[in-house]
Specification:
There is one protein chain. It is built from 6 helices and no strands. By secondary structure, the protein is mainly α. The protein has a single domain, classed as Death Domain, Fas, CATH 1.10.533.10. The chain starts with 6 loop residues before the first helix and ends with a helix. The mean pLDDT is 85. This is Death domain-containing protein. One of its GO terms (biological process) is negative regulation of myelination.
């Protein structure tokens, strides 16, 4: 996967964007209506379609990045989702720091 977007971030975005996933995917991939329609087959809910489309974007484009995803969300006025991504990343960073600190503390006699 070329994108630095974690599965958690893709799931978070997919759960939040609703039917806007189509517009966001088109912006990210310059996708045709036909391409977008392909995700409607086989999935019953928008969050499932959104997740499949976002996964496809990360695989399809070597330029896929978190910055590109955030830019697309902002262009569609979804700053609320951008803030949730930021919160998720801060929580993840705090967890990593805590684990590293704990391991270091265990290594001291």
């Amino acid at each position: 996967m070329a994108c630095v977007c974690s599965i958690d971030i893709l799931k978070l975005v997919a759960a939040q964007v609703g039917s806007q996933w189509k517009d966001i995917y088109q912006l990210l991939c310059n996708a045709s209506e036909r391409e977008v329609a392909a995700f409607s087959n086989g999935y019953t809910a928008d969050h499932e379609r959104a997740y499949a489309a976002l996964q496809h974007w990360t695989i399809r484009g070597p330029e896929a990045s978190l910055a590109q995803l955030i830019s697309a969300l902002r262009q569609h006025r979804r700053n609320d989702v951008v803030e949730k991504i930021r919160g998720l990343m801060e929580d993840t960073a705090q967890t990593i720091f805590s684990v590293m600190w704990f391991k270091k503390a265990l290594s001291y006699p």
